[in-house]
Design brief:
heterotrimer, A mainly alpha (380), B mainly alpha (192), C alpha+beta (635), A: 380 residues, mainly alpha, Ferritin, two-stranded antiparallel sheet, 9 helices, B: 192 residues, 3 strands, 39% helix, globular
């Protein structure tokens, strides 16, 4: 982790507040992008089964909400305008994330060994091989699966792969961790420059900060961002909660990092403090891979027959979800108390997904419906 | 298999009429197959087919709910969807219309009066054994499964949730209920 | 790096099973505690933090408090056809639990032996307690009312009940400690009534739970309602109850340090239950553990490494040294399998012994052990709140069946001069509708589908009309101690392990019935103000039917058991001293509701938790004195 130092630091990729805000928007987009993926897997589990998987997925989905909120706090602190309702904020699935120089696909899919593999890929700690390698040229040719997916898509993704460099679509961040490193470097640099002029980067209205009163989750505390220190703390929390702190399995708050939470599903055992990476010693994790609804991978509205009740239900869900993002946007732009209600809305979202994944897709023997998360145009 | 799938579809279609919840809602409970199996096991396949036949759409179909033979079964299916409970069919009915008769221990009815908390008025049998369902000597009325309880439509119909499941979120109880399609005197109803 | 993990929610893996009777028998503990419920857990936690070793003897099943076990309780509740307050907990004949459904009309002298509690009448109580790790806090509702200052000397003030040897001010600091441990959500401004005081600047750990929409509808009729009683004037209003359930932490708590709610307990990190989700299922089990249960405190105690626990161990005898009167051991019966009465018998030893079962079990164990009692009060003065229910349909949709079981009610009539004549009460508005009284919502479903032959849209509309308008007022009425209300044992009645079962003789005192009668009429006035349609009926065949002044009522138990080993000022008129130490056995502490001389109109858990904290400091002192090297006196 880069920490603020007293020595002058050199500019990185972020040299203006506008660039910083652009990065933060992408950060929010990224943090949100995993939520539909985790929720689809979570609610594909049969009720009264797979409790271990259920809890692991539930906690991570909630913590992604925390990350989203932390990113919104940073955005607000630097005078930006969080907006989760912008066209293209929600990616078209399968979304694409960087893994070094190549992308990997992040589909909406039911809980499965493949899904766990993808989750590990999303959360895997990945450091650039050398400091200069934070940003790399995108060379998707390395990944036949991605190329194939691109060919078979009869639509163009609304947005490009997540974590391309703002303004330079042919370059991308080596990993999520490196992306946040760049932002931390950027805020530190900008604050240094502002201070030289007797000003500060953190001019946002403090009343827009989401505080612990309004946000609660199982893990990790929300950080109100008012200065460089709290800003770096918030950004580090986002990064560490995914990957762990300094190579350990816990973040600075004592929360098991997402990568290791998911790894418990793969290894079949819970971590207990003070376990070392890859060697959990807690009670066994039991999984019934079959007790899962056979949700169609990357479902889309066109999978649902025109005029059918099912299509109406899928549309209704997208409207619910759009309403949820709208409510979050209002909560992040001056009405933090709305986050209490956003939790109710989140429970509606749960009920909506659960309803869809238990419905058989007509004419697709043994395949069930699922939420499409196509919210652009789905006016609440 | 397609015969069974067809029967399941017809069962869901009838249930949608009977409960005034859409087929998507009913599939959405995940209980359709389990409820069909319960009905077949408890009442028999033939009488279910008779019911589905008689209940073909139209106002005449409504008569099945008051029909001497089909009514108790039709009403039981409604109660099943609403509560997740299979209620014992009346013994006189069972004797006359050929539903399997089960030995029912002669017990007082604990749910009838005086049981703290929510209880089933018709549940019988040694109280302590009722937590385990589907044992050979199960009581005549029983919760089909733990998941069935949590999918009861009863609570959705009143803008609530089964106690102990499908939580609505902290503080949500402080605002008026949102009741799907309720056209009553509340004026708040509306649909979401 | 250091793992500075806030592991307050972690139950040490294997802690409930690793101490065998053989291991325990070889050790000499500082403290032997009978019962792993709220009192036992608090004492184990406090004393182990102070450096003492402890062993807990627990009658219930031998599993760690772990998420999958907890969720098995929940699934059992879902699948149970009778959803009473014991529905989640497995049937265990060796540590059998009373169930409300066990209640039946009683024939005195020839009591029914088929359940755990043998009822000798004349009244039949449907009271219960839960015998699993965590005790009755597993199923409790979580109301955490303090007792009123006037509740501590009702004998002197009103001529009813018994005076405590302590006052509100003596207990107040311990109330704060209990409110911290139990995690109480309330606003001080709401709780400063009838003389209750709080130190300057005190706030509860979490903010009050919002009143339900139903409460708000009722408040429109009740707020401002005036009651004149014995020269006192009361202006009623719907007030939120303090609840031991996780709400919004108050940033001002603890001088601005704030409060960290404790959620679900497990042997690994779970991250659930740090805030109530409104499951409306506090009783019999909170699905997410947002409600306090003693497993939270027990986990903390076990993490000290100084506390052992032997489970599936039903205490059967307290051994006493005849010469000194000191307790020399606790004998218990250890069963391997809940479904088999096979067991082995063992004894544990310590310096100090604590009975922390509950008011019925503590008395049962003392009496079964034949311990002498100077005051002859062991088992006497059994108390439980008497509940009177009255129910109606509101004229409008009130959204019943949402919220925690109870968020608000009327508390003004808990105290006042009228207590010279009749019992005080608190009134609960039940967010779970008429369930307690009539079996709603199932009974309504049957009535509408089978009775009214409704289906489809008509059915849905009828359900909304019948359920969403339900209002049930539950009057929690003070029951004063009476020596004849008592727990005894009888060699004819034994459980499968051969332990003597509790035999209960109880009648509802007239004083309480006078309160019930007043409450019945008050409910009628409230219904009139609200335009609500009364649906109350009491069945004379009901086991709990009682007549008073020409009217009949059904009275329910509240599971707030107390009084069987009252504390007092002398050994002649009480069983324990103000520290809950037995007058007759200097190294024996009897803790819990049993020590309470009166229960006023407060659910007893908060008060007995406060008393446990208070006793912990006395036990600590006693242990330090006893452990100190003997000083040879020159005299």
């Amino acid at each position: 982790m880069t920490l603020p130092t007293t020595r002058d630091i050199a500019p990185g990729d972020i040299t203006t507040i506008e660039e910083l805000q652009d990065y933060l928007y992408r950060g929010m987009q990224l943090e949100h992008a995993t939520i539909p993926v985790y929720l689809t897997a979570l609610y594909s589990l049969h009720p009264e089964t797979n409790a271990d998987a259920w809890h692991i997925l539930r906690v991570i989905a909630i913590e992604e909400m925390l990350h989203l909120t932390l990113a919104a706090n940073v955005m607000n602190a630097v005078g930006g305008q969080p907006d989760l309702t912008k066209k293209g904020f929600v990616p078209t699935y399968p979304a694409r994330l960087p893994d070094g120089e190549t992308d990997f696909l992040v589909p909406l899919q039911p809980f499965s060994e493949d899904a766990v593999h993808t989750f590990l890929q999303i959360e895997r700690p990945r450091k650039a091989p050398e400091p200069g390698k934070r940003i790399v040229a995108r060379s998707r040719a390395h990944d036949p699966e991605v190329l194939q997916a691109d060919q078979h898509l009869d639509h163009r993704p609304v947005i490009g792969p997540l974590l391309t460099v703002p303004g330079r679509p042919e370059e991308q961040f080596y990993s999520i961790g490196e992306f946040y490193e760049e932002i931390i470097h950027g805020v530190t640099y900008l604050e240094q420059e502002y201070r030289k002029q007797g000003k500060t980067l953190f001019t946002g209205d403090p009343s827009r900060q989401v505080t612990p009163e309004y946000y609660y989750s199982g893990g990790g505390e929300i950080v109100a961002v008012t200065d460089l220190e709290s800003c770096v703390k918030a950004l580090q929390l986002i990064a560490e909660q995914g990957e762990g702190l300094g190579g350990g399995i816990y973040d600075g708050e004592g929360e098991l990092a997402h990568y290791y939470r998911f790894q418990q599903l793969k290894i079949g055992r819970f971590y207990l403090p003070p376990d070392e990476p890859d060697r959990p010693t807690g009670p066994p994790v039991t999984i019934d891979w079959a007790a899962v609804y056979p949700v169609k991978k990357n479902p889309r509205m066109r999978d649902y027959p025109q005029g059918s009740q099912l299509r109406a239900a899928a549309e209704e869900f997208n409207k619910e979800y759009a309403a949820f993002l709208g409510m979050l946007t209002r909560a992040y732009t001056g009405q933090p108390q709305l986050l209490l209600e956003a939790v109710w809305q989140m429970f509606h979202v749960r009920d909506g997904i659960v309803r869809l994944v238990r419905n058989p897709l007509p004419g697709r023997d043994g395949v069930n419906a699922g939420p499409t998360f196509e919210v652009d145009g789905a006016t609440p | 298999m397609s015969g069974h799938a067809d029967l399941l579809d017809r069962f869901v279609a009838f249930s949608a009429e009977a409960t005034a919840f859409s087929a998507v809602d009913l599939w959405g409970t995940g209980q359709a197959a389990s409820y069909l199996a319960t009905v077949q096991e408890e009442a028999g396949d033939q009488i279910l087919r008779d019911l589905l036949e008689a209940a073909r759409p139209g106002p005449a179909g409504d008569q099945v709910f008051t029909d001497e033979k089909l009514g108790p079964l039709a009403r039981n299916i409604v109660k099943l969807w609403y509560s997740g409970v299979w209620y014992e069919l009346p013994p006189q009915w069972a004797a006359r219309f050929g539903a399997p008769v089960k030995a029912v221990p002669a017990q007082r009815r604990p749910g009838q009066h005086g049981v703290a908390g929510h209880s089933l008025p018709d549940s019988k049998g040694p109280l302590e054994q009722q937590g385990r369902q589907r044992t050979p000597a199960r009581c005549a009325s029983y919760v089909v499964s733990a998941a069935a309880y949590t999918e009861g439509l009863l609570w959705r119909a009143i803008g609530a949730h089964p106690s102990g499941a499908k939580a609505p979120g902290y503080g949500s109880w402080a605002v008026p209920p949102e009741i799907d399609g309720y056209e009553g005197d509340h004026g708040k109803g509306g649909s979401r | 790096m250091a793992f500075d993990i806030d592991s307050s929610a972690i139950f040490p893996i294997g802690a409930a099973t690793r101490t065998t009777p053989q291991i325990a028998a070889r050790k000499s503990y500082d403290v032997v505690i009978v019962g792993g419920g709220v009192s036992g857990s608090i004492l184990a936690d406090q004393l182990s933090q102070a450096g003492h070793s402890a062993v807990i003897v627990e009658a219930g099943p031998g599993k760690d408090v772990q998420l999958d076990e907890y969720e098995a309780y929940l699934s059992r509740f879902y699948a149970a056809s009778v959803k009473d307050n014991q529905a989640p907990y497995p049937f265990n004949p060796n540590a059998r639990m009373p169930r409300s459904a066990d209640a039946m009309p009683v024939t005195p002298q020839t009591p029914d032996d088929q359940y755990y509690i043998v009822q000798d009448g004349p009244f039949c109580t449907d009271t219960t307690f839960t015998r699993v790790l965590g005790g009755t806090t597993m199923h409790w509702e979580g109301k955490a009312l303090r007792m009123l200052p006037e509740d501590f000397d009702t004998a002197s003030r009103f001529g009813h009940g018994r005076d405590w040897p302590l006052g509100y001010d003596d207990i107040e600091p311990y109330y704060r400690q209990a409110e911290q441990e139990l995690g109480v959500s309330a606003d001080v401004e709401d709780q400063r009534y009838l003389g209750m005081t709080f130190p300057p600047g005190y706030v509860y750990p979490m903010r009050k739970m919002p009143l339900s929409y139903l409460d708000q509808v009722v408040a429109r009729g009740v707020d401002g309602m005036r009651v004149d009683l014995d020269g006192d004037r009361y202006d009623l209003r719907i007030r939120s109850f303090p609840q031991a359930r996780n709400g919004v932490p108050n940033p001002d708590y603890d001088g601005g340090k704030g409060y960290q709610p404790i959620g679900a307990i497990s042997t690994y990190q779970v991250e659930e239950g740090k805030r109530c989700q409104g499951n409306n299922n506090c009783v019999p089990i909170c699905p997410v553990q947002a409600k306090y249960h003693a497993g939270k405190t027990l986990a903390k105690a076990l993490r000290t490494g100084k506390v052992d626990i032997v489970t599936q161990a039903v205490a059967s005898r307290v051994h006493v040294d005849k010469e000194s009167g000191r307790i020399s051991g606790i004998e218990y019966k250890r069963y391997q399998d809940p479904s088999s009465p096979e067991h082995t018998t063992h004894t544990v030893h310590g310096r100090v012994y604590v009975l922390a079962a509950n008011a019925i079990e503590n008395a049962r164990l003392m009496l079964a052990s034949g311990l002498p009692s100077t005051s002859d009060l062991v088992g006497r003065n059994l108390m439980d709140h008497a509940y009177l229910l009255r129910w109606a349909l509101l004229p409008e949709i009130a959204g019943t069946f949402r919220g925690t079981n109870c968020t608000g009610g009327i508390t003004e009539l808990r105290g006042g001069r009228f207590r010279e004549r009749q019992a005080g009460f608190a009134v609960d508005i039940h967010n779970d509708g008429w369930g307690w009284a009539t079996g709603s919502p199932y009974s309504d479903l049957l009535a509408i589908v089978d009775g009214q032959r409704k289906h489809g849209r008509d059915l849905r509309a009828a359900l909304v009309s019948q359920l969403s308008r339900q209002l049930l007022l539950a009057f929690m009425i003070e029951v004063a101690p009476e020596p004849a209300n008592r727990v005894t044992v009888d060699r004819r009645y034994r459980d499968p392990l051969g332990n003597l079962k509790p035999v209960i003789s109880f009648r509802v005192p007239e004083y309480s019935l006078a309160g019930a009668s007043f409450g019945f009429d008050l409910a009628g006035q409230i219904f009139t103000r609200l335009g609500a349609e009364d649906h109350t009926t009491y069945d004379p065949r009901d086991y709990s039917y009682v007549e008073y002044a020409g009217r009949g009522y059904s009275i329910r138990g509240g599971n707030h058991l107390a009084g069987t080993h009252v504390m007092g000022k002398t050994r002649h008129d009480s069983v324990t001293d103000p520290a809950q130490r037995s007058w007759d056995h200097e190294n024996l502490f009897l803790v819990g509701g049993g020590s309470m001389p009166t229960i006023g109109t407060s659910n007893i858990t908060l008060t007995l938790a406060a008393l446990a904290y208070r006793s912990a400091s006395f036990i600590d002192t006693q242990l330090r004195t006893e452990k100190a090297p003997a000083v040879i006196s020159a005299r």
